[in-house]
Please model this.
Amino acid sequence: MKPLRDMSLTTKFFLGIGFIVIFFWCLFNVLIYFNLKDTSINQTYEKTDILFSHIQATVQYIRKKVRPKLFHILPKDSFIPEAMSVSFMNKGIMSEFKKSFPDFEYRRVAINPMNPLNSPNKLDLRYIGLFRNKKIEKIREVVKQNGKRYFIQARPIVIEKECLLCHGDPANAPVSLVRLYGKKRGFYRTPGEIIGVESIAIPMDEAFLQIKGLVFSIFLTGIVGVVFLFLSVNYYINIVAVKPIKDVSRFFKSVVKGEKDLDTRVEVASKDEIGELAEAFNRMMAYLKNSQDKMKGSELKYRRIFEGSKDTILIADCEGFIQDVNPAGLELFGCEDKSNLIRHKTFYDIFINKDDYTDFLDRMKNVGFVKDYETQLRGIDGGLIDVLITANFRKDDDGEICGFEAIVKDISEWKRVQDRLKEADRLASIGQLAAGLAHELNNPLGIILGYSGILLKELREKDGVRSDIGVISRNAETCKRIVEDLLKFSRRTETRPELLDIHRLVDGVIEMLSYQVEAKGVHIARKYSSSVPEVMLDREKMRQVFMNIIVNAIQAVSPGGEIVIESNCNKSQSRIIISVRDNGVGILEEIRGRIFEPFFTTKEPGEGTGLGLSVSYGIVKEHHGDIIVESEVGRGSTFTVSLPMERGVRSGHV
Model:
């Protein structure tokens, strides 16, 4: 059926009509054949009737005229077969007839005939049986004998009273007849007895062949006529219908393929049904153009919103597979190729906490939407992203849920700012506490140091108490240094800003630490930007900041490690950026938020006071700057110091 479906409408039409016409034409020719055949058989029947009528007339003439006359003329008991035997005379007459019609065959046979040559064959016996059993007067049929078909008409031979003279009691029969045929055969017949059959067979093969030839000629003539008719009709239909329809079809295909736009129209050249079709097509084109313009406008409006949104917009199907995402989403997930997300990642895959995803879906199923759901997502590179998600289900035309749409807002920076504010508030509180503590400790420490100094001067060198007083003095000095660090952390020391080249300041720190660098085999790479200008800074305090950061980096790296110091200028924010990156052990995430707390340290006892980064943090804040840390365990840490480029840091206590 598929090849039929792939055919053109014209081909289907003509094939269908062709099959119908040929079928009925064949049926018509078959009817003609059988009609001519029946006509031929009827004509043959009429011919056999004529022959039988002639034979019957001959028989009656012999019986009623010739035979009585001969019996009267001839001596008693005389019998002349040629003039007195009906069978003999009929066969003689038909043998003469056969000379003119050699294919005709006349038979007159009987059961137990006087002349054995007149014995019946199987077909004759069948006819005799039919005549005796069914009491029929004649048989007409077409039979096949010796490979040929014949029309046969057969009639029964019935014994009449006139026949008993020769076929009754042989004692009463003519002597010459008995002498000729004997007494065993052909006698003792009774009136009305059917003793044989008389038949005429006319060959029909030639007549049937002529009929077939005539019918075949009529069939071929009709086929030729049908072909000519089809060609004529095909040409006419092509001109009137097919060509205009194909023109409309080609025009429609060109519009579908985009070769022509919806503004073009089909030329209407007639007012018939095809013209109406073309006009309807033009109206449809106008409607589609109007709908297309509206759709493009709507799509453009929403596409601008989709593409231009700074928040991530994504669309997912019922299984959670991401179907589309806007550029902000690609940037959020760190994905350059959209195909890495679409239909490859599910919403479930990008949730850090899978329980959050389950809770997210449950909330949406309960109320149909979720607003400002806070969670963490995973980027393509595995990084964590703090987000707020607002989402709702999508439904198809039947009202069935077919996915959901979500707006994802990146709050990572906001979270970092919040953490910094919390850290700043906490450090400010600690700074105030440290300032008060340092103030309270300074006076007692001064008294202890003063009196211990007096005692050391008055005691002799060998006095045993002198060593104890020395221990007290040294530990008081240590406490004094801690108090000084606390004062620095709490920003209670004086700031003296001056115009400095930050690169020279950092180089001076590296030079001061050159012994430690060489002893550990650390390589320090400097990547300074020439765009960084001189800025107003407190030389000693900023030296202390970079001293603390670089010393920590040296201590964090393994022997032969690397430290990279970079600088650049962010002119849009009027800030200079200096970063110190090492490839050391890194900082654990759980303690990363505490590294700027006073007295917090991961070093062994006696190796540090835990105030280095706290003091550095206070100094940077004093200069209206920021200090942030990024770290990954096993890969190292990066400390970034951001300072304003304005040349106006106030001097004095800040």
User: Anything to note?
Assistant: The radius of gyration is 66 Å.
